[in-house]
């Protein structure tokens, strides 16, 4: 009996570890569980009281999934220990536990097994030609370089204002920005104030914008840019990410500025330079970072829809950001254009995109839309209908799924079931709809078989 149990247990373990996506999902779930336990402790709260399991779970999920939605004021409610736990969750969640594990495994010169390499590649890149050893080193070096440089620049603004405490504020904000997390410690000036007091500080806003963009481009892109000086060219993936990111930033800035230019509740009271800077900052932050410099609840409906679109698309694959990813959007748009122009294949920059990539992009987008709709429905139907509108509930749900963290105040008024729905949306948005689906599949993916064609009319 025991022998048979041992064999079955070993078989289950082998089947579990054979699926890289399942390992990734499990690592994030384990990190959230540990973070929840730590944040529940009295030492984590400024008042010395226990934090409710739901609030601790929500905060741990938001930090690990680098989202930024909160049910408690991070800068006021949590103690230095609690803030340190949140910072560690952001850093580990932003880079991924698998990245850390693989790097340190290679650092002590242990040969990584085939499964470990597969897990690492699934975690940060789908490119099977990537040199994982060099990529791991580059990831940590690049992360430390950006975060420490950003913290030093932010100290120029925060140390004179907060003294020695400004050093921790600067480091916390730099890590949160690079990991696209959206957490800050400046909430003492008001609930959900985020960076509103700094709307007229270009040093802080530009520094944070650079950190957000840098973390959102993806580690593969940075490696490709570094090696481009030798190859004299960029890969198609890097070109798509850079063009897509630049296009979204420009369009986002333009739409937000035009729609909110005269709105007295948002940009209306600022001068022209501040309006452009804050429009650009929100366009950057909407791409999964979650900081805001003016009250988002005062935005017009069209501006909210613009931000929703930016949040849904998100950053690049293999980055610290979320969303369906800019490459997914690019592939879908290119597919639509090619179909309308009579082409049988998706072509980008004179390169044919594999049909499997197109199918995956479509599946991710549809799964994301379904997840967002379900989350929105739960938030709406389990709360007092007078507390917030449908578009605000949609805004918060997309913010959770896109791991953005921008809020219009829905989270603090959501019911218990609404908050649980937001927690699940954050988790799903971080690990990815496809990774979660693969992680739950106990059987390996079946190979394609030859089947007779079926005719279906569409359109």
From TrEMBL:
InterPro entries: Cat_transpt. The chain crosses the membrane at residues 21-43, 85-108, 139-159, 203-222, 234-259, 323-342, 362-381, 416-438. GO terms for molecular function: monoatomic cation transmembrane transporter activity. It is found in: Cell membrane. Its main location: membrane. It is a multi-pass membrane protein. GO terms for cellular component: plasma membrane. Keywords: Cell membrane, Ion transport, Membrane, Transmembrane, Transmembrane helix, Transport. GO terms for biological process: metal ion transport. It holds the Pfam family TrkH. PANTHER family: KTR SYSTEM POTASSIUM UPTAKE PROTEIN B, TRK SYSTEM POTASSIUM UPTAKE PROTEIN TRKG-RELATED. This is Potassium-transporting ATPase subunit KdpA.
């Amino acid at each position: 009996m025991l022998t048979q149990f041992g064999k079955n247990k070993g078989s289950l373990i082998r089947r579990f570890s054979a699926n890289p996506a399942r390992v990734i999902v499990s690592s994030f779930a384990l990190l959230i569980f540990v973070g929840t336990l730590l944040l529940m402790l009295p030492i984590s709260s400024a008042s010395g009281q226990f934090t409710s399991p739901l609030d601790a779970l929500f905060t741990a999920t938001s930090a690990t999934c680098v989202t930024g939605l909160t049910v408690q004021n991070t800068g006021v409610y949590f103690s230095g220990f609690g803030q340190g736990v949140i910072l560690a969750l952001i850093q580990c969640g932003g880079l991924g536990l698998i990245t850390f594990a693989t790097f340190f495994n290679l650092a002590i010169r242990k040969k990584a097994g085939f499964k470990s390499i597969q897990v690492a590649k699934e975690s940060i890149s789908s490119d099977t030609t990537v040199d994982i050893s060099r990529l791991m080193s580059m990831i940590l070096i690049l992360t430390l370089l950006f975060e420490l440089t950003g913290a030093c620049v932010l100290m120029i603004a925060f140390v004179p204002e907060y003294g020695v405490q400004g050093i921790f504020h600067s480091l916390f904000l730099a890590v949160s920005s690079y990991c696209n997390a959206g957490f800050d410690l400046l909430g003492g000036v008001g609930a959900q104030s985020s960076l509103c007091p700094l709307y007229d500080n270009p040093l802080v806003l530009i520094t944070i914008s650079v950190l957000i963009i840098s973390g959102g481009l993806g580690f593969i892109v940075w490696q490709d840019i570094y090696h481009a000086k030798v190859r004299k060219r960029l890969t198609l993936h890097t070109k798509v990410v850079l063009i897509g990111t630049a296009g979204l930033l420009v369009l986002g800035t333009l739409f937000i500025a035009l729609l909110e230019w005269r709105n007295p509740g948002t940009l209306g009271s600022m001068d022209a330079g501040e309006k452009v800077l804050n429009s650009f900052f929100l366009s950057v932050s909407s791409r999964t970072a979650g900081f805001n410099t003016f009250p988002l609840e005062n935005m017009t409906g069209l501006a909210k829809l613009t931000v929703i679109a930016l949040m849904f698309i998100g950053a690049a694959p293999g980055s610290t950001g979320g969303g369906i990813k800019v490459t997914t959007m690019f592939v879908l748009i290119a597919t639509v254009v090619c179909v309308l122009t009579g082409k049988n294949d998706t072509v980008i920059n004179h390169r044919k995109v594999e049909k499997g990539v197109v199918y995956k992009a479509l599946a991710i987008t549809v799964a994301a839309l379904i997840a967002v709709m379900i989350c929105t429905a739960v938030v709406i139907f389990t709360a007092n209908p007078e507390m917030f509108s449908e578009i605000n509930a949609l805004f918060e749900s997309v913010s959770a799924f896109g791991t953005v963290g921008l809020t219009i105040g829905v989270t603090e008024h959501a019911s218990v079931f609404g908050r649980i729905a937001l927690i699940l949306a954050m988790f799903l948005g971080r690990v990815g709809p496809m990774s979660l689906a693969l992680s739950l599949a106990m059987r390996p993916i079946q190979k394609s078989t030859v089947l007779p064609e079926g005719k279906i009319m569409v359109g």
